[in-house]
Amino acid sequence: MSVAEAATPDLASVAGRWSQRPYSLLLPTGHSCDVLELGVATVRRVRAYLDAGPAATLPDGRVLLFTTVAAAHDDDLGAELSRVGALHHSHGSWVPLPPSQLATGPVRWSRSPGAAGWRLPSPYQVAHALRAALSAVAPAEGR
Description:
Blueprint: H1 3-6, H2 11-20, E1 25-28, E2 34-38, H3 40-47, E3 55-57, E4 63-67, H4 75-83, E5 87-89, E6 94-97, E7 101-102, E8 105-106, E9 108-111, H5 123-135
Antiparallel strand pairs: 1-6, 2-4, 2-5, 3-4, 3-9, 7-8
């Protein structure tokens, strides 16, 4: 059976296959979406400035924010994201999708596509929120 023949939106069928043998899912980025990989503390601050789209959490706590595809060769965006510690996954990259199991643990949805209304923010919206979040005074610990 080919991948195309095996593909199905039937959740019961997918769950049955998955229970027999779990698979890892890899998403090539830069085609239908890009992904910004951020530290968990940064994501918490960004969420105060942006109602982000879907997000997955890696076993080490880093978060994958799914966005629309950025314009090709946008060096300004890449430099800005790099300055704030974000890794921009676009053309030529890929990310694991939940419920993939990595050697260090599972990849999980922290905000599923359904909970995000199946909408993706642009990477420019996320970069703007990053700028705002990181330029704001961080709240005192324990408040």
